[in-house]
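User: Okay, second chain of the day. Same drill as before: sequence in, C-alpha cells out.
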Amino acid sequence: MFDFDNLREIWSTMKKNKLRTFLTGFSVAWGIFMLIVLLGAGNGLHNGIMYNFRDMADNRIEMWPRWTSKPWNGMKARRRIVFKDEDYYTLKYKHPEVVLCSATVTHSDTLTYNKEYFTGSSNGVFPDHAPINGIQFFPDKGRFINDADIHQRRKVIVLSPRMAEVLFREKNPIGEYVRCGHTMFQVIGIYHDKNMSNSSPAYIPFSTAQLLYNKGRGFYNLSFTVKGVTTEEENEAFEQRLRESLAKNHKFDPSDKSAIGMWNTGNQMRMFNNMTGGIILFIWIVGISTLMAGIVGVSNIMLVTVRERTREIGIRKAIGAKPSSILKLIIFEAILITAAFGYLGMVSGIGVMEGVDYIMTMSGANDAPTGGNMGEDLTLFRNPTVSLGIAVSATLLLIIAGVLAGYFPARKATKISAIEAMRAE
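Assistant: Same drill. C-alpha cells below.
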C-alpha cells in the first residue's frame, strides 16, 4: 500500500523543482484544456446544425411533381406530371415503410375579420401534417385538423399566431369565423410559432381545400415519414420503389429522376451526422495529440528525476527496498502531476465552455429563430458544452497518461543495480 511518507517525499521533490514541475504540469493542463474546448466547440457545431431541423422529423420525405426528361412508350419528353389522389393512396397503403402521410393543396388569399385583414396562404392538409412537421399547440389554443374534418369537408381553419394577432388583437379567436376569399371558416385552433412569422400559413382540411381551390382533384406535394429505412442503401432502394410506383401511375420512365422532385431529410441527417462526426473525430485526434505532447514532457521530466535520484535509488535497494516500491513511487509522482494539473485544465476548459454557453443563452443566441426564408434565421453554433461522459473519458485518459508517463522511467530505475546506482555522481 502507498503511505503518506511517500506522498511527503513526492511533495518535497516537487517543491525543490517548482519551476520544472509547474512547466511540466502546465503542458498537461494546456493539452486537456484545449481538448475540452475543442470538443465543446464541436458539440456546439453539431447542436447548431441539428437545432435547425428540430421541428422536422428526421425521417421525413417530401415529393412534388415536375417535368419528364425522357420519352416513354411513345410519349414525348417535357411532359408535366400532376399528382392525383391515387398517388396518395398508393403511398399510404402500398408502401409498408410509410408511417405518416399528408398531401398539400396551397392557396394564397386574404383572410378578413370585421375590418381587419391578413394576406397569406391557406394549406389544405391531412391530420398527419402536424406530427410530420412538428406543429404544436398549447392546451388552451384549440386543435389541429382531424379525420372528421376531412371526411365531412368542414370549413374550419387553424391560424398562425401572427394571423390571430392581426385579425383578433386581444380577442380569443377560437370559435370565431374568418372569411378566406369568399368562404367563411370557423377558427378551431392557433398553433405555436415562436417566431411569429408573417409567412407561416393557415391550415384547412385537405378535402375542403381540394374542393374549393383545386376542382376536387389533385394536389401539389406529398410529405411523409418512413420507418426501417436507416442506411443510404435502404434509402436508395426505397426511393427507387417509390419512383416505380409513381411511374406506373403517371406513365413515365422509372429512371427519370426529373419527373418527381424528392427531398429526403434522412439523407441530410446522415450527411450532417457524418460531417459533425468527422469533425469531432478530428478534434479528438488533435486534442489527444496536444495532450500527448504534454505527457511526453512529463515522461522526460521523470527520466531526469530518475537520473538525479540514481544514488538515492541505489541506497534504497541496498537497504532492502523492493523494485515494486520504487516503481510505485515514480509512477505515483507522474500520476500526481498529470492528474492534478490535468484536472485543473479540464475544469478550466469546462468552465470556459459553460461561460460561453451562459453568454449565448443570455444574449439569445442559443434560441436563434428558425422558420424564415431559406438561408435566413439559421444558427450554426449552439450550447457549446461538454457532457459528463466526455469529462469522465478525459479523467480516465489522464490516469492512463499518468501511468504511461511514469512507467517507462520507473522501469529504467528498477533495472539499475544497487552498486552501480551508489557509484553514480
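Residues 370-376 have pLDDT under 50 and may be disordered.

User: Thanks, on to the next one.
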